[in-house]
TrEMBL record:
Organism whose genome encodes this protein: Paenibacillus nanensis
Designated name of the protein: Carbohydrate-binding domain-containing protein
Region feature (Disordered): 284-334, 608-653
Keyword Signal: yes
Stretches with biased composition (Basic and acidic residues): 295-305
UniProt keyword Cytoplasm present: no
Length: 653
């Protein structure tokens, strides 16, 4: 799937021991002028540092919040008595009521003037253009009078189709603010619903937008403070588009209740997107069930570019193609036919809010950096649950990825907190080589240096259920804290752990189960000890497997949810040179003494580490860089003591 977007790269500072690899196809520049520094998260050895700067919060002036108006100081306009367009040429407050059957409201005042339009049961329809067209002014307020029902509908075709012509039912070339305690239904039959070519602020009210293309667009800024917002969009739901001017092109949401159904992206920011609160119900591209079918047999775990059209219905095909198109009328505006729920070109930050997401494409996506520090997210995704081309940081919140192709993906993934659950039909947590094509796409060096790619875990609770690799680092893994439970693959072509460099384990709790074909354990020079239990035959899911000390006290236990042949145990309580036993259910399997950082154990006692499969300082490039989707370079896997060997069919997986 081609999931690129043609943007002028506006980035943030991304730092690690080495600058992110030049193999990333999404090199970015620093545009942090409009950002505030977020807390730096790193491993306890400070081996990797990800410094991402949070986008600024939305700012609302006192006049933005004011929805009061006085009839004595306002001009009343009865739309029912008007036969054509009403033009406003002076600053002031105008109260619009009644029904304008075929005409529009034009605001054309000086650049220093402010106008308030009070919609007081106003029904405005214009078959030839926008219902409300704000041509010039400093700021225009659309106030929804309390308890009123209002509507604005444009035509299917506009009489003015020039380059600078309006494209929305409510269109403004000035800053636009919508507030009040009434309701507004906007029908953008031509293209968009509500568009401001400057800042657009939604403060309050009940707003429903139906749009042939994009529903709500703030070119320079889209800020939402509160309100009930319902969107049906043939394009994107909420959007900012200015990617050429520093400090602009952002979306900032403080609160509100959102129901967004979009063929393309739910929220798309040309630069940054930040949510501090709100309740979101987002469906994109018809939902995750509408995504193209993928299998991990496809090259490097990604869909070929032309696969989006194979066997998909029209909406799914439109959602998945991710083609690029530039709106000539907007100049610097960029559109994408991707179907992501939340997308930003530079920084995507979720600091709060409650999200229910069902997306055909990625649920959370940043072309640069993604930060999750709060909120409650329930995700069903047809592709990645959370994806960042560069750094992805989770330091708080609840992230429940119920369905995904790959759960969490980025070049530098840092998990310092939060409650994270991942279900994936391919890899659970995947440290990739950069943008969405890096896992098997075009124009990428699939064997590029993996030294800059890293998974760093210092806190949080992480539960992974993956049909592909559980934790897949096309680079290295560092774990110093947190609790990680992985239910890995049942096929022999993937591993519960999969890394190219090293897995330095110095703290936290790690429990992992899965197949034995590509089994790996943490590196032998790790500071914390690990027990790797390998069974001679595949074990049936559902029975607890327990690690006990010499006194029979339970240290760690896990009940695998899938069939397995390998179980890994590690915690600060596991020490080298101590006696332990492993039991399945109530039956003791083996008793042994640990020796070193990694002790491999079979049913008859301590055994050697499988050649090239972890516990040896990283092994032989195990993490996801195997050609052919899992086979070794010579097409065979070495025999391992006490382990079933994969069949030819399994090797093909």
């Amino acid at each position: 799937m081609n999931k690129t977007i043609a943007l002028k790269k506006l980035g943030i500072v991304i730092m690690s021991i080495a600058v992110l690899s030049a193999c990333s196809a999404n090199d970015t520049e620093n545009t942090a002028a409009n950002s505030a520094t977020a807390e730096t998260v790193s491993s306890n050895e400070a081996a990797a540092v990800a410094t991402a700067e949070l986008p600024v919060k939305a700012e609302f002036e006192e006049e933005d919040l004011a929805a009061d108006w006085s009839a004595e100081n306002a001009t009343a306009i009865d739309l029912g008595s008007q036969e054509e367009t009403v033009t406003i040429t002076a600053a002031g407050t105008y109260v619009l009521s009644g029904k304008l059957k075929d005409g529009g409201i034009i605001v054309n005042v000086s650049a220093e003037d402010k106008v308030r339009l009070v919609l007081n049961n106003a029904d405005i329809t214009n078959s030839n253009g926008p219902a409300i067209d704000i041509k010039e002014g400093e700021k225009v307020f659309v106030t929804l009078a309390e308890g009123t029902q209002n509507s604005a509908t444009d035509g299917i075709a506009y009489s003015d189709t020039s380059e600078e012509a309006p494209t929305a039912a409510i269109y403004s070339k000035a800053d636009l603010v919508v507030n009040g305690a009434g309701s507004l239904v906007v029908k953008g039959q031509y293209k968009d619903g509500i568009t401001s070519r400057d800042d657009l602020k939604l403060v309050s009210g009940t707003i429903e937008v139906q749009a042939a293309d994009d529903a709500i667009v703030g070119r320079d800024l889209l800020a939402v403070r509160d309100g009930v917002i319902t969107v049906e969009a043939g394009g994107d739901g909420l959007k900012s588009t200015n990617d050429s001017e520093e400090g602009k092109g952002n979306i900032a949401i403080e609160g509100g209740t959102f129901a967004i159904n979009a063929v393309n992206d739910g929220l798309q920011a040309a630069v940054s997107l930040r949510t501090d609160g709100g309740t979101f119900d987002i469906v994109t591209g018809g939902g995750s069930a509408n995504a193209p079918v993928r299998t991990n047999e496809e090259p490097w775990g990604r869909t070929p570019r032309d696969a989006a059209a194979q066997g998909a219905d029209p909406q799914a095909a439109a959602a998945a193609e991710a083609t690029e198109a530039t709106d000539a009328a907007a100049g610097t505006e960029t559109e994408s036919t991707s179907a992501k729920a939340l997308k930003a070109a530079s920084v995507l930050a979720v600091t709060g809010g409650t999200f229910t997401i069902d997306s055909a494409d990625d649920a959370l996506h940043s072309n640069n950096s993604l930060i999750i520090s709060g909120g409650d997210l329930s995700i069903q995704s047809g592709d990645d649950g959370a994806h960042a081309d560069a750094s992805l940081t989770i330091e708080g919140g609840t992230v429940d990825i119920v369905k995904s192709y790959e759960g969490i993906e980025g070049t530098l993934i840092t998990i310092a907190g939060g409650d994270i659950t991942v279900a994936a039909t391919d890899d659970g947590v995947n440290v990739s080589g950069g943008n969405d094509t890096s896992s098997g796409g075009f124009g990428q060096d699939q064997f590029a240096d993996s030294g800059d790619r890293k998974l760093v875990i210092s806190g949080g609770t992480i539960n992974v259920n993956a049909a592909g690799d559980g934790l897949d680092a096309n680079g290295s893994i560092e774990m110093s804290g947190g609790t990680v439970t992985v239910f890995g693959p049942t096929n022999a072509g993937n591993g519960t752990l999969d890394y190219d460099g090293t897995f330095n384990l110095s703290g936290g709790t790690l429990i992992a189960s899965g197949s034995a074909g590509m089994a790996m354990a943490p590196s032998e020079d790790s500071a914390q000890a690990t027990v790797a239990m390998s069974f001679s035959q595949t074990q049936t899911a559902g029975s607890p497997v327990t690690l006990k000390d010499a006194d029979g006290t339970e240290i760690l236990t896990v009940t695998p949810t899938k069939d397995y042949q390998i179980v890994l145990f590690s915690s600060p309580e596991v020490k080298s040179g101590s006696t332990y036993s492993v039991a399945s259910g109530d039956t003791q399997i083996v008793q042994f003494e640990t020796d070193g950082s990694v002790t491999w154990v079979g049913e008859s006692g301590v055994t050697e580490a499988p050649a090239g499969h972890g516990g040896m300082g990283g092994g032989m490039g195990g993490g996801g860089m195997r050609p052919g989707g899992g086979q070794m370079p010579n097409g065979e896997r070495p025999a391992r003591p006490g382990m079933e060997q994969p069949t030819a069919a399994e090797q093909a997986q």
